[in-house]
Amino acid sequence: MEKLNNEVTPSHRDLAPDFKEKYFKQVLDHFNYNSLGNGTYDQRYLITDQSWKKGNGPIFFYTGNEGDIWEFARNTGFITELAAVQGALVIFAEHRYYGKSLPFGKDSFNIPEVGLLTVEQALADYAVMITELKEELGAQKCPVIVFGGSYGGMLSVYMRIRYPNIVTGALAASAPILSTAGLGDSRQFFQDVTADFEKFKPACRDAVQGAFQKLNTLAQQKGIHCIQSAFSLCKTPSTPKDIHQLMGLLRNAFTMMAMLDYPYSTHFMGSMPAFPVKVLDWSLAQKASAFILCRPTGIVYNSTGQLTCYDLYSLYVECADPTGCGLGFDSYAWDYQACTEIEMCYESNNVTDMFPPMAFTEQQREQYCSKRWGVVPRPGWLKTQYWGDDLATASNIIFSNGDLDPWANGGIRKSLSPSLIAINIPEGAHHLDLRESNPNDPESVIMARKEESEIIARWVKAAMKESS
Amino acid sequence: MEKLNNEVTPSHRDLAPDFKEKYFKQVLDHFNYNSLGNGTYDQRYLITDQSWKKGNGPIFFYTGNEGDIWEFARNTGFITELAAVQGALVIFAEHRYYGKSLPFGKDSFNIPEVGLLTVEQALADYAVMITELKEELGAQKCPVIVFGGSYGGMLSVYMRIRYPNIVTGALAASAPILSTAGLGDSRQFFQDVTADFEKFKPACRDAVQGAFQKLNTLAQQKGIHCIQSAFSLCKTPSTPKDIHQLMGLLRNAFTMMAMLDYPYSTHFMGSMPAFPVKVLDWSLAQKASAFILCRPTGIVYNSTGQLTCYDLYSLYVECADPTGCGLGFDSYAWDYQACTEIEMCYESNNVTDMFPPMAFTEQQREQYCSKRWGVVPRPGWLKTQYWGDDLATASNIIFSNGDLDPWANGGIRKSLSPSLIAINIPEGAHHLDLRESNPNDPESVIMARKEESEIIARWVKAAMKESS
């Protein structure tokens, strides 16, 4: 889940609602009383009570995921809009090891310090934070609804199943809880990226599939200078590793366009025009040339047009997540998580998808992760811990997914019970429903938000009744 | 939950059913991929398939608690009896840091090695063990029912709420899930020990209450030689600490008699005659002397009659559990757990109970635990983690309790829903229902076992139906 490196970040506070930024004194290691973590760290959170019916209204709690919490606050306007209607207190909590919530400051990614970065620790952080903040704010009786998108949505699901004593219900948007737990088909992800483009113009698929083959042939036949010039690469791709890196970067451009195929331009995980999948000049597809792959690169990695050439290794960073890890501390953290609990051994193969054959097997993962972080992944752990597809005993969770989102089919697409509700949004990309309302919103997301609002209001009402 | 030090252990294998003793290669640290625990240890378990309908019958899994697993296998005959009727595979798993399941051998109780002793690690051990053994034994479709007594019963509850994907139902016998999570009245425990004796003979209470007062006066008035001779102490109790230790030892004698007030003689947590509460010669109560407190000491600490004098500090070891910790590695482990997650700040006060005023406050706990183990307890943690009394979303748990057991009122005494069932056994001591059937069993425990059997059969049947 790469953050693109092209972003011109707007001033957070200009765009975000009226949040106060605060820090919570958090337990470093919830699961070992004698570890190096026998202390506390400062965990950042954002809070606004501007809509709150103090002491009575619910608490809407965003379970922060892999990035700066302001980034999520700015791009999750649905929560504050809903809070205004339902009189809720809103909290966005930053995930440990991301943003400014670094337990050991700049040493956080050393070994063994990085070892306290786990899903379990993050959930315990949220459980402890909610419990203490409720006390502090006189909100003991206020039901808590958790919200999250993508990995944050996974965390919302986990919070509800792990801490139903603390969390009344969860809206998990675009949460690939199955595919990240090693369940399902490893070809699904890139197959679904492919499907997005195919759906828009069926000829695309063949054109791109062919273009990748041609690019590969060209590389084999020493056409590297030609490739360098056509793709405006800063350096000549002189090794097989460089070519592999180029393939990864190109595949990822398509992935990002599919994931972020919103009906208006956005600044989330990078900058993207409205309807990026449609923006491509698909007449190029007629040319049957490898170089039709250039255009996506420009859209995704050079939205501002300021780059004069592309540096393969800084624009796309290969890691244990086959969609890339970006740069900086946040990307280290995500790579570590993909090396430990979050399983993403997705492959493309140029048969079930339009991309070059690039596998990422469990063996490759183990090799990479041992070398990079000194860890051995434990396949199956997430399924053991968070129940995989065996959710029969859970309740009060909405699983929303957009049909345009390649992560969607790695999540729950069919309701499992009257209180485990799947909401599918035909015209939705990656957790579009969590974004603030927009004049360009398709009808399907408007309907989804309406349904989500009603369900959440019901949960809150029922919880209030029980506690009174 | 002391193990008495007077036990003449019978050869385990003579009394236990036909178990095979095995070891499971277990993950050392489930919650940190970069810790000192980046490896495995050998976790002991006992297994018998003598009644199992291979591949079809359920799995009865005992979630081992604070001691040698053979001790529990020998004293939990109900499970094997039930397995014979229901065609179940039986596994008794040993808790990490107890018995022979020492993750770091003799270094296990060093700091920081001891840090991997937590409830969470123990539960994850069981989750991983069940998952892998099912695979290995071709038992993927077999529903798992967990059983446990006392702390083991708490673990059974936790397994069901934490891993309902793995565990179909739980029989939690005498599991004080509330009082060990800091919920309820800290005076309840010794009040209920008192009630047992009072119920048998109302005059007892006043006699014992007065005797403790007299003993205290005697100690103040330099009557220590008199005390030494009357109580057959090996050494003169010359300091206030010695007197405090004597008081603790005496209080504990009554506690053990109440807990282990079984209708036949037993060898569990020490040796005890049948009906120990009745065994006392209560005519002594008429004497209104401090020395009526001698007799319980003899029953509890000198059942074999081999001791010629009592050594205060080896017979009773004060620790973070107000009922004492015994000797040896198992007692270190339990002390550590009482210093971290398991909260037992129980007090006696000579008003609501018949014992000397002996408090164990959260402050005293913190002081002791910091000094002994370098840890700071986190009150409220168990409630956060395992839901406290907020069990509304849980299902398929039997909470059985005996009315004679001072731990009972620290547990769930009323059914919370049709699938969260309290079974109370008027004539039952500490998890009597888990013991094998005996000609001296009172009717109430026979009825309880029958009800438990029927409920478990229903759970298994329903789970089989779902998975087919």
TrEMBL record, chains A, B:
<keyword id="KW-0325">Glycoprotein</keyword>
<keyword id="KW-0645">Protease</keyword>
<comment type="similarity">
    <text>Belongs to the peptidase S28 family.</text>
</comment>
<dbReference type="Pfam" id="PF05577">
    <property type="entry name" value="Peptidase_S28"/>
</dbReference>
<dbReference type="GO" id="GO:0070008">
    <property type="term" value="F:serine-type exopeptidase activity"/>
</dbReference>
<keyword id="KW-0732">Signal</keyword>
<dbReference type="InterPro" id="IPR008758">
    <property type="entry name" value="Peptidase_S28"/>
</dbReference>
<dbReference type="InterPro" id="IPR029058">
    <property type="entry name" value="AB_hydrolase_fold"/>
</dbReference>
<dbReference type="InterPro" id="IPR042269">
    <property type="entry name" value="Ser_carbopepase_S28_SKS"/>
</dbReference>
<dbReference type="GO" id="GO:0031982">
    <property type="term" value="C:vesicle"/>
</dbReference>
<keyword id="KW-0378">Hydrolase</keyword>
<protein>
    <submittedName>
        <fullName>Dipeptidyl peptidase 2-like</fullName>
    </submittedName>
</protein>
<dbReference type="GO" id="GO:0008239">
    <property type="term" value="F:dipeptidyl-peptidase activity"/>
</dbReference>
<dbReference type="GO" id="GO:0006508">
    <property type="term" value="P:proteolysis"/>
</dbReference>
